[in-house]
């Protein structure tokens, strides 16, 4: 028995839109079940609008590293062969406007409401930056309604990338670059 080796690839996500966005990334199979043996770093992040790049510490580009051990790759290859697929798994990127997320989150906090779950993610629950709680306190005088939650969930986008293994390229430690634009 051998110790598993690791392969990785990089995805670059860019925001060319007008507002700061948020994103969650997870690996899933064809049935939308999360594959926990695949490491994604970071698996959630904020991505600033491009024009704010010079004045803010947030970046309008983020690199995501996806790392898979050889045992998982072999298991995914076997499953793909049985299912007749040309891909091993999917990377699902759930993203949207952070301003809408914060408004929905504030309504949920004020009304002790449930966090909406999108693709298995309680999407308003996570804290994306250290001072988010402080910022949420500054929103106390503004009116928030259930419509904020509806508007937020309506604007969420999902980008799905099928990850293929071309001729065993996952057997070596390689990097791949994919550019996505969060507009």
Walkthrough of the structure:
This is MSP domain-containing protein. It comes from Panagrellus redivivus (Microworm). The protein is an alpha+beta fold and 183 residues long. The protein has one domain. The chain is 24% helix and 31% strand. The chain is built from four helices and ten strands. The strands form three sheets. The protein has a four-stranded mixed beta sheet. The chain has a four-stranded antiparallel beta sheet with strand order 4-2-6-9. A two-stranded antiparallel sheet has the order 7-8. Strand 7 and strand 8 form a beta hairpin. Helix 2 runs antiparallel to helix 4. The longest helix has 14 residues. The protein starts with 5 loop residues before the first strand and ends with a strand. The C terminus is likely disordered.
Quick recap:
With 183 residues, this protein is of the alpha+beta class. The protein has helices at residues 70-83, 98-111, 132-138, 146-154, and strands spanning 6-14, 21-28, 38-41, 44-47, 61-69, 89-97, 117-118, 121-122, 157-163, 179-181. A hairpin with a 2-residue loop joins strand 7 and strand 8 (121-122).
The neighbouring-strand order within the major sheet is: 3-5-1-10
The stretches of 5 or more residues where confidence is low (pLDDT under 50) are 177-183
Beta content: 25-35%
Instruction: Compute the number of structural domains.
Output: 1
Q: Strand count, sense and closure of the main sheet?
A: 4 strands, mixed
Shape, per Cα inertia axes: elongated
Rounded mean pLDDT is 83
Structure summary, number of beta strands: 10
From N to C, what is the helix and strand string? EEEEEHEHEEHHEE
Distance between the termini: 47 Å
Separate helix tally: 4
Structural class: alpha+beta
Give me the Rg, rounded.
19 Å
Percent helix range: 10-25%
């Amino acid at each position: 028995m051998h110790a598993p080796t690791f392969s990785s690839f990089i995805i670059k996500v860019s925001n060319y839109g007008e507002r700061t966005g948020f994103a969650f990334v997870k690996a899933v199979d064809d049935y939308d079940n999360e594959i926990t043996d695949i490491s994604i770093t970071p698996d959630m992040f904020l991505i600033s609008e491009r024009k704010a790049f010079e004045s803010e510490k947030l970046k309008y580009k983020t690199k995501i590293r996806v790392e898979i051990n050889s045992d998982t790759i072999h298991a995914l290859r076997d499953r793909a062969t049985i299912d007749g697929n040309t891909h091993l798994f999917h990377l699902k990127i759930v993203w949207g406007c952070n301003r809408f997320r914060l408004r929905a989150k504030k309504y949920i906090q004020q009304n002790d409401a449930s966090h909406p779950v999108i693709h298995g993610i309680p999407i308003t629950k996570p804290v994306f930056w250290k001072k988010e709680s402080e910022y949420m306190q500054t929103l106390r005088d503004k009116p928030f309604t259930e419509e904020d939650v509806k508007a937020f969930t309506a604007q969420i986008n999902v980008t799905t990338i099928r990850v293929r293994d071309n001729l065993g390229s996952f057997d070596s430690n390689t990097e791949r670059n994919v550019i996505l634009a969060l507009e």
